User: Which sequence fits this backbone?
């Protein structure tokens, strides 16, 4: 056993003695592993944040929208011709769908928010009904969400995200203060719990106002309600399908869809969204991993090349070692250790870089950076594999040298 | 009872494609434990080839070689490596030290390959360096030592495993006359303390240190001259 350790130490000192060569090899591995891990952790982070986002909807909730999810050009050109959703559908579903527990509606648009002389431009203004907060699991941090009365009475009240609080109210309690949303005065009544960022946009940079107030202040034009979605919570998971069927019938009637035509709206559950996204990310994953594997192979070839040069250059050394009793496996192990130390070292650095870059890529940098175990396992697996695969040939070559020939090598 | 070394009709042929070079053509000899043998002969007569075979660095193309009663001529690579490690101490003309390692590490190296513990290794390596009088230079690298000192480090490395056989292929070839004589005196002393010694040389005053001289010519033993048999 001891000999393996001693041979390992010899490998380390050989690496130290050839700093430039070791550095170059490391670089090759780092580049390869970094690119693979960047892609993996970006995709991983993307799926995770999508999942978190969608899970906010809850398993018993479905969403009715005009466009839904589009996977082809034809679908797109069909979908953009659809008529917009209307707020009345919400009441119709509330009345006609017996398996539906709650029905909410929301739309969004980009707004500017001002408080005194401070201003934030282009952030998400979400206009929703009061029960939106019950269906979508946004949590109240401070104060309260607006009530049904406030929505009905078109009161100018606002529920803000923590980023707005941080930027506009650094030293003041925002509750009860008036802010201006697109120059219209609204009273802040509550603050959401911190959400963090997802897909590169800060989810705390958001302001909620009642849907009816929005209709009054911003109008009900086609453009204004373009993003309207109706969120329906079924009474239970078992009744989800029935609730969706009833909703479909109601909407088709309201939108006068002929019986032989497809729906001109779309209904999505957390599950269907997740499925579709998984399909997309799976393709991305395969494609991108394929591309980045090339850089890994390049890294591996660099290792092999440098190892071959190293073996040739150290022929005499190998001869000396053999002449005093090193067996094939002692030499083999020493060169394999050298390759493995470089590839694993490069792998670890590559993982660190990759996880970091992956997060930067999808704008998650301000979320807690927990590198996925999956990425680490893949990174370590890949770099060990590369080290072994590309290190074994030079190491075998070294181990099989004839002592006399090796000793007389010039 | 067999001799320490026994070769029977040993041939070494190098296949050079167009021609075959017969470096050895049927060498049969025996050397007893405790002998001091010089191998002489003109350049190209096969002295180094014979030494490499005796030292198990290579195997004969034909014939048998018994070392300590074991047929080493048909052994596999790794078995030979173990023999080289345990039974043979080889001293080369060009020293063949690891250039980046200290004298101590160079001497310690054979012990690493047989799994000796770190403490034992250091103790034995330091003892061997003491025998060659270089304990105070153990931290030096070969480049920081004189030629004679380098050869003494190489001798310490050859001694460290207490081999049954010490081989030296022109050990003074890269040294000046005075240093060469010192090294030969030293090797002679090692022989007196009980080591079996074979030295290749083409200088008769070096061969004069030995008790027996084997003359090679064209890969064959021309003369086996026993002057004073060791008892
Ligand atoms: N690897 C080899 N390939 C081909 N021929 C070889 C090889 N090694 C030695 N020879 C040949 O074998 C013969 C004996 O060589 P060897 O090195 O044993 O001679 P030597 O007696 O040691 O000579 P010197 O006194 O010059 O060292 C020479 O003709 C040499 O050219
Ligand atoms: Mg020679």
Assistant:
């Amino acid at each position: 056993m001891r000999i393996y350790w001693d041979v390992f130490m010899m490998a380390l000192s050989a690496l130290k003695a050839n700093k430039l060569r070791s550095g170059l090899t490391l670089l090759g591995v780092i580049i390869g592993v970094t690119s693979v891990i960047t892609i993996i952790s970006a995709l991983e982070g993307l799926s995770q944040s999508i999942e978190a986002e969608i899970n906010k909807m809850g398993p018993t909730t479905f969403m009715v929208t005009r466009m839904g999810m589009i996977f082809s050009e034809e679908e797109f050109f069909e979908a953009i011709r659809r008529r917009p959703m209307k707020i009345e559908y919400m009441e119709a579903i509330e009345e006609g769908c017996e398996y539906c527990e709650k029905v909410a509606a929301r739309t969004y648009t980009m707004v500017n928010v001002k408080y005194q002389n401070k201003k934030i431009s282009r952030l998400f203004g979400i206009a929703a009904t009061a029960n939106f907060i019950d269906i979508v699991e946004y949590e109240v941090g401070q104060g309260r969400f607006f009530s049904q009365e406030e929505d009905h009475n078109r009161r100018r009240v606002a529920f803000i995200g923590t980023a707005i609080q941080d930027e506009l109210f650094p030293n003041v309690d925002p509750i009860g203060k008036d802010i201006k949303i697109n120059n219209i005065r609204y009273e802040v009544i509550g603050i959401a719990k911190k959400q963090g960022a997802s897909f590169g946009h800060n989810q705390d940079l958001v302001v909620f106002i009642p849907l009816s107030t929005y209709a009054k202040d911003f109008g009900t034009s086609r453009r204004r309600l373009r993003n309207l979605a109706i969120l329906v919570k079924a009474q239970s998971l078992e009744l989800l399908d029935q609730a969706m069927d009833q909703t479909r019938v109601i909407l088709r009637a309201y939108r006068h869809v002929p019986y032989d035509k497809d729906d001109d709206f779309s209904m999505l559950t957390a599950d269907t969204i997740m499925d579709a996204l998984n399909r997309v990310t799976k393709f991305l994953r395969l494609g991108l991993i394929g591309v980045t594997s090339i850089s890994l192979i390049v890294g591996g070839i660099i290792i092999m090349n440098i190892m071959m040069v190293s073996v040739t250059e150290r022929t005499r050394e190998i001869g000396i070692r053999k002449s005093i009793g090193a067996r094939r496996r002692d030499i083999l192990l020493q060169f394999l250790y050298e390759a493995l130390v470089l590839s694993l070292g490069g792998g670890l650095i590559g993982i660190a870089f990759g996880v970091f870059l992956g997060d930067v890529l999808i704008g998650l940098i301000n979320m807690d950076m927990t590198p996925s175990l999956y990425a680490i396992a893949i990174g370590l697996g890949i770099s060990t594999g590369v080290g072994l695969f590309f290190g074994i040939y030079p190491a075998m070559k070294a181990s099989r040298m004839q002592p006399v020939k090796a000793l007389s090598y010039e | 009872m067999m001799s320490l070394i026994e070769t029977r009709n040993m041939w070494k042929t190098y296949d050079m494609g167009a021609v075959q070079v017969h470096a050895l053509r049927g060498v049969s000899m025996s050397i007893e434990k405790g002998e001091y043998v010089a191998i002489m002969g003109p350049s190209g007569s096969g002295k180094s080839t014979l030494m490499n075979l005796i030292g198990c660095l290579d195997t004969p193309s034909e014939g048998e070689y018994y070392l300590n009663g074991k047929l080493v001529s048909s052994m596999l690579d790794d078995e030979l490596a173990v023999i080289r490690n345990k039974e043979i101490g080889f001293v080369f003309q060009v020293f063949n030290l690891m250039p980046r390692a200290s004298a101590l590490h160079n001497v310690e190296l054979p012990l690493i390959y047989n799994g000796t513990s770190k403490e034992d290794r250091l103790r034995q390596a330091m003892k061997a360096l003491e025998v060659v009088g270089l304990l105070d230079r153990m931290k030096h690298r070969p480049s920081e030592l004189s030629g004679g000192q380098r050869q003494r480090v190489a001798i310490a490395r050859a001694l460290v495993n207490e081999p049954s056989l010490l081989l030296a292929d022109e050990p003074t070839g890269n040294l000046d006359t005075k240093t060469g004589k010192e090294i030969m005196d030293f090797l002679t002393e090692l022989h007196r303390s009980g080591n079996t010694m074979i030295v290749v040389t083409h200088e008769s005053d070096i061969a004069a240190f030995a008790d027996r001289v084997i003359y090679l010519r064209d890969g064959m033993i021309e003369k086996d001259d026993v002057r004073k048999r060791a008892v």
